[in-house]
Amino acid sequence: MAELKARMRADLTTAMKARDSVRTGVLRMALAAVGTEEVAGATARELSDDEVVRVLTREVRKRREAAEAFQGAGRAEQASAELAEADLISAYLPKQLDEAELTAIVDKAVAAVAEQTGAQPGQRQMGLVMKAVNAEVAGRAEGARVAALVKARLA
Q: Are 17 and 47 in contact (CB under 8 A)?
């Protein structure tokens, strides 16, 4: 079993014993999402820690989007509940990169791609740069944030 999934299950047991209904509910939903991903496809399989991180990142993004929708509809109480759930799930994700760290990674990838192709960096190399950056970032930065930074650097 993936180490992250095992830690979530242990935390679920602890939350249930402590009668922490919010934490119990959030962990159950997150584990259900992981379980659904495990049985999706032709055959059931055990997810690796990286795949579990991807599922949890998707769950956090869903909750943040729901919070924005609730906030836009004037339902602050539901929005804060969704944000609290997102924060609980985020505790299981790797530390997010700050702007300076991400910029350094992008700059290094742009230089490497320019050296590799021998061409002036431009929008045509966006796919190559994104591939290099995503390999190094691996769940520590949101994809849209990475894409925006890469696009700005290549412009």
A: no
A 10 A CB-CB count for 63 gives 22
Say how far apart CA 3 and CA 8 lie, in whole Å. Answer: 9
- Complete domains list, the chain, with CATH: 3-90 (1.10.1510.10), 99-154 (1.10.10)
pLDDT, average across residues 86-110: 90
What mean pLDDT is reported for the chain? 89
Rounded Cα distance between 89 and 37, Å, is: 16
For residue 92, give both structure tokens: 């299981």
Model confidence at 41, pLDDT cuts 50, 70, 90, reads confident
How is residue 116 written in tokens?
A: 């590799």
Pick 85 or 152 by higher pLDDT: 85
Which among 92, 96, 84, 93 has a CA at the least distance from the CA of 10?
Answer: 92
Q: What are the residue ranges of helices labelled H in 73-137?
A: 76-90, 99-117, 126-137
At residue 83, does pLDDT exceed 90?
yes
Considering the entire predicted model, what is its pTM? 0.77
